[in-house]
Amino acid sequence: MEDLPYSQASENNREPILAVLREAFANCTEVLEIGAGTGQHATAFAPALPWLRWQPTEHPDALAFLEPRCRAFPAPNLAPPLALDVCDRPWPVPVPDGVFTANTLHIMPWEATEALFQALAEAVPGAVLAIYGPFNYGGRYTSDSNAQFDQWLAARSPHSAIRDFEAVDKLAAGAGFTLDTDHAMPANNRLLRWRRG
Q1: Selection from 68, 110, 119, 118 nearest residue 91 by Cα
Q2: Would you say residue 134 lies in a domain?
Q3: Residue 15 resides in a domain
């Protein structure tokens, strides 16, 4: 298994995220994971949340990065990975009653974030949206390390940046979601949970 794609960050944040998701998705039947990356979250969370079906997805260009771990660590409720570009409509699957994404909003272009929320407007009433990652509040960094990380993102890609919570919350509100909880997480990250309707 040593040759599988691996993210140390995913390993580090897995348990803190799962502790929140157990309650957040307690009444959900299916979770759509956007940008599942190496699959470390999908293969850990699906068996830990056996009452729901976990559907991992990744951008078509990165799907081959996700598939190996999902094959190596199957679970009865872990669906086969799907290619999903948030900017392409319609999506290959309907938006279910749970949606999760981690460390994606600061990587994807802002236009893709807008497209993500436009698609989420099709979610059923009561759907839960959980987003993990770094956020700015009031236009300010929450830590020096996040400021340094944002500089690294800008050098890596002109389309990447730590997003302002207020701007993301405005997109969520436009899609019919209301913020439920805002959890402080390790390494100056947040886990935000919205509910639709």
Answers
A1: 119
A2: yes
A3: yes
pLDDT band at 91 (very low <50, low <70, confident <90, very high): very high
Domain coverage including residue 175: 8-28+38-196
pLDDT at 3: 87
Q: Can you state the percent helix, strand and coil of the chain, rounding each to 5?
A: 40, 25, 35
- On whether residue 3 sits in a domain, the answer given is no
Residue 2 lies in a domain: no
Mean pLDDT across 144-152: 97
Structure tokens at 184: 């402080």
Q: Is residue 29 packed enough to be buried (19+ CB in 10 Å), middle (13-18) or exposed (0-12)? A: exposed
Tally of structural domains, the chain: 1
CB 176 within 8 A of CB 188: no
Give strand ranges (E) for the chain: 30-34, 53-58, 82-83, 98-102, 128-133, 135-136, 163-164, 177-185, 189-196
